[in-house]
Each structure stands twice: as structure tokens, then as C-alpha cells.
Prior knowledge:
Number of domains: 4
Structural class: alpha/beta
Strand content: 5-15%
CATH topology of the largest domain: Rossmann fold
Number of helices: 20
Helix content: 40-55%
Shape: flat
Strand order of the largest sheet: 2-1-3-4-5
Number of strands: 16
CATH class of the largest domain: Alpha Beta
Low-confidence stretches: 127-131, 400-413
Amino acid sequence: MTEPEQRSLLLIDRDPAQCRLVTALAGREGWRTLTVDDSEKAIATLGTREGMQLSAIILDQCVPGDQAAELIAELKDRRPALPLLMLTASTSPQLAVEAMRAGATDYLVKPVSPDRLMQALRNATKREAARDELTPLSEKIPARLDFDDMVGNASSFRDALAKAAKAARGHGHVLIEGESGTGKEMLVRAMHAASPRAKTAFRMINIAGISANSLESRLFGHEKGAFPGAFDQQVGAFQQCDGGTLVLDEVDRLSLDVQDRLAKVLQTGSVKPLGAQYGFKVDVRVIAASNLPLAAMVETGHFRSDLLALLSRTSITLPPLRERDRDIGALTRYFLHQFGQQPGLRALGVTSDALRLLGSFDWPGNVRQLQAVLFRAAVFCDGDALTEEDFPQLREIVGQSEPAPRGRIRESAGVQLYTEDGNLRPLEEIEADVIRLAIGHYRGRMTEVARRLGIGRSTLYRKLSDLGIDNAA
């Protein structure tokens, strides 16, 4: 019997560089990779002795092109239990729908970070078949750029949006912390769209997706001959984003050496490419995103305190979905509405029993996982509304006989008026939620917030202080 450490992967790809990368990444986790560069070889491989021992398939859509769905269907017809992940440069929701209906387990939009790719492969090959439905799929619907599209009324979430909306109008660096899937990238894009730099350079760099050896060159640039293999000059991201915004995703993955250099750039406003004798003054706003709390990393010596201080002039924390479970109903309806506008899908409702089931799960993958599960259910739904029956694996995990907590069944279409035991909430708490909602809705424009609430600015700021609402930016 083949041990888990000896699993085999079939990679259908014609890009040598990508083949080497995937083979190396998979090899670190004990996978043996077979590589083929066309559809015929892929189908033939399934019938070989090695093909019978496969545990997963990764297909780059560039190989079959427009016939990707046909190839997926044929591969799944021959090996129905074999997980299949498709890599593509296309963001078309129609292609995602076709791939999933043909049998794809996941659909990853390039460029995809190594961590994201390997996590998708791990999820797809978990032995617990009942959990397949909850595999965190990649985003299928183009990200919105507006604060109004960030749905939720939980006080911690509205506080984060209010702070982000106000910070968006400034030029200072911003740190956004939160678990994977909480919406950090969407918040970053909303902030950029609402900022004075909205029409200037904007670039996102995923630290985890770049090797340590090339990260410094990517960020700061290098001169020709700066190191072996530096055959040409490279302009770094800081110079490319001069006057604009640079987003550093997963900044918690920076090495201490690069952290030191980044701190000096932010302190001096000057960047010096590797091998250069001079530096360049740059005006770059940095928005850093982290899956881990950086303050805790400072305490353990894994993150520099001076860099944290520079990045966190404005610090925003997005709460996990398990702490805003009353938002699940609103998020569900929002996503279903978005799906209904995409080619190949249609508008769907959702029943109360389905909402009750969704509200009973802890969503370790947060909003991204909820979106993925709803997308999968919408693709295969034959009725006019999603019901419990459209989430069979989720029902099995949660347990049909275990009722959902009362607080999770109650939906939040606006400000919550009642406590979980059915009594009215204190007026002070309701007032605080209304103010948070208004600050987020009007994107931190306090004059407009005061006007819409029918109070003066001085009264508004007094209420912010009395109610303990964080409005710092």
C-alpha cells in the first residue's frame, strides 16, 4: 500500500518553469510528480501502472485551451474519484462554472502563490470525503472595489470599515491584520479606490509567493552585475510605485534582513537598488497585510518593532467570520446576488433551513470559504433556492440533530435590536451600532455622518468618546 508521503501527482502543463516550480513544491511534501504537456498524453497516462497510482491531477488550462471542460470531463470519467485542480490566467466566472460542472475540484487563477497552490492540493486530497465541499476555492467573482460592497453589521467589522474609510483619504502607511479569508485584499482595493492616489500606480506583492533570494530585487531593484545572474538592471516595486501605493501581502513572512531594509526605506523615503552607488527618493504609501498578529511576532523576535511602528500608524483588524456569525445571512444573499449576475449562473434564493445550517458552522476559512461553498452549491442547484439538501457535506459535519445556537439563527439585515434571549438590547449599544454603520456607509466623512444622523459634529465626537467607538486614523 502506498504511504501518504509517496503520493503521485499528474501535472498537465507545457510551461517548463511552472513545471519545475510545482514539482519542487510538491516534492517538499512528499509528492512524486509526473509531467505531460498535452491532452493525449494525459489520458494515456491514466491507463499506465503509474497512472493507476495517482492521487491528484493539476491541469493548466493553456494546454487544452477552449476544450478545458471537455478534457476535465474525460479525465473525471476515467478516474471519477481523482481530485483535479485547474490553473488558469482567466478570471472568467463562466469558465469557472464550466470547469466545476465538468468535475474540477478547484479552480486557481494565476499567478497563484505557492502556499495557496499547495493548500488547495492538500484540501483536495484530504481523506475525509465529506469535507470536500468545504475546500476553500479560489475567488471566482471579480473583487469589488467599493466599501459599500463589504457586507456586515457586526460592530467590530463596522469599526474596521470606518477606520479604513477614513484612513483611505490620507497618505500614511496602513497595517491590516486578520485571518486568511477575512477580506483583507478586498479592503485594500476599496481603500485604494477611495484614496487620493486612486489613479496612480498600484501594485500588490505577495511575500509568500516570492523566493527569499529574489524578494529584495523585486522590492528595491538591482543594478546590472549586482550579483551572479543579474544580467540586466531591474527597477524595484518602490520605484515603480513612486507617487502611488504598494501593497505587501503576508508581510509577516518577511525575513528579518528584508525587514531591516524595508524599515530604512520607510524611515528615509529613499530606496537604494542592490549594487547601486546612489539611492532614489520615493513617495510610496505602503499598505501591509498580515495573517498573523505582528505584535505577538515582535515579542518572539520574528518581527522588528521599528518596522511594526512604521507600518501601523493606522492599524486595522478584520474579525473572523465566527465572531460575526449574524452577518452570515446578509453575506449569503449578497454572494447569491453576485453569482446570479455571472454568465452561466442564475439568481437564487436561500431557505431558512439553509441559513440555519450555514450559521451553525465555524467557517475556519472565513468569508472566502463561505463564498466558495455557496458558489459550489449555486453551480449544482436545480431549484430556485438553496436548501439544506444543497449542502450535504456541511450537514454531515455539523450534524443534523444538533440545533444551531439561537444567536446564529437570527439574521442581521440591519442593526441588531434583540439579544440572543429575545430581549431588546440596551439603547446605548443600539446607538453605538447605528453610528458605526453610518461611519462605514459614509466612508468616514464625519460631517456627512453628523448631518445624516441629525446631530452636530461636536455632538457626534462626544458620542464617539462616550460610547468608546474607535475613530482613529
